[in-house]
Design goal:
Structural class: alpha+beta
Strand content: 15-25%
Helix content: 40-55%
Distance between the termini: 110 Å
Strand order of the largest sheet: 1-2-3
Radius of gyration: 28 Å
Length: 126
């Protein structure tokens, strides 16, 4: 009879297991890279906020130590804060090594510049 043929056993029994063994480490690596990327972006956003906070405080003519302390509070852990006055402007730079893979020669760096309040625009006395 034509519909009563016996099926032979399938020889692809371990094929799905072999594919999973190859694909699973790749998926884990991609997931780890995505998580690391999100951590770097979060650190960058914190650095932007810290630099802006420090620049606003320095523009109010707060002492440089107070400005650096305020910026460090808003910055990620381990960040370096630099405050420099350049005439009637102040520059705050915040740098930090990225989280998790801190051994890489890569760092997140953000800076903010603000005009000092009460400073004359033309450099002369009012």
């Amino acid at each position: 009879m034509p519909g009563c043929e016996r099926r032979r056993p399938c020889r692809d029994d371990g094929f799905v297991t072999a594919e999973s063994a190859v694909v699973l480490p790749v998926l884990v690596a991609v997931a780890m890279a995505l998580v690391w990327g999100l951590l770097v972006v979060a650190a960058q956003i914190q650095c932007v906020d810290a630099a802006r906070t420090g620049a606003r405080a320095a523009a109010r003519q707060d002492p440089a130590d107070a400005v650096a302390a305020l910026a460090r509070e808003a910055a990620p852990r381990g960040a370096k804060v630099t405050v420099a006055r350049e005439g009637d402007r102040v520059r705050v730079v915040v740098t930090v090594a990225p989280p998790v893979l801190g051994d890489l020669a890569f760092e997140v760096r953000e800076e903010a510049v603000a005009s000092v309040e009460g400073a004359s625009v033309d450099g002369g006395s009012p």
